[in-house]
Amino acid sequence: QGDTSLPAPGPWTIDPAHSTVGAVAQHLGISSVRGRFTDFAGVVEIAPDRLEKSRVEAVIRAASIDTGNRMRDDHLRSGDFLDVEAYPEVVYRSTGLTPAGSDRWTVHGELSMHGQTRSVDLDVAYLGTGPDAWGGTRAAFRATAQLRRDDFAMNYNQAVAAGIAAIGTTLKVELDIQAVQGDTLPA
Fold first, then answer.
1. pLDDT at 102 over 90
2. 116-160: pLDDT as tens digits
3. Angle at Cα 77 formed by Cα 71 and Cα 78, nearest 5°?
4. Radius of gyration for the chain, computed over Cα atoms and rounded to the nearest angstrom
5. How many CA atoms lie within 13 A of 183 on its CB side?
6. Residue closest to 117 by CA, chosen among 97, 79, 91
7. Which one, 31, 41, 44, 72, has the greatest CB density within 10 A?
8. What is the CATH number of domain 10-181?
């Protein structure tokens, strides 16, 4: 268990090898399909004077979607969904921070995906800071958000029976993030 006082001011670089960017969609109204993006980078900048001025920026390679099913992944990369050839990156940039408890924050930001930009709030829990095996310091965060596919012009659906859509209209985003203190990752 690490130290849960807030991370030191300055840049913290997201470590993709020890982080997960995932999403959960409802399938047929009864089960969930989980996916994750495997190629992403980002930085958390902790403001020295007022924590509310801290910022987060992340870039995800849309083609790195992985649900464990190649046919489904190819469909998600197609023009029906992410359209990765036209829109290769998913970008999140924070616009502000609001405290939501001693170790919880709401990060307000803009998510650009599939040619659309929308305001998206992340509910963030700060899990603490501790030393790592490479002589550095790491901070851990968990974050969730709800997205509506329609907000990002991903309207594809398929009715499989009266009133039952194949894919739910909302997507739950789940982030487990480790960030290394400093503006680079250990070699």
1. no
2. 999 999 999 999 999 988 888 999 999 999 988 777 766 655 554
3. 90
4. 17
5. 2
6. 91
7. 44
8. 2.40.128.110
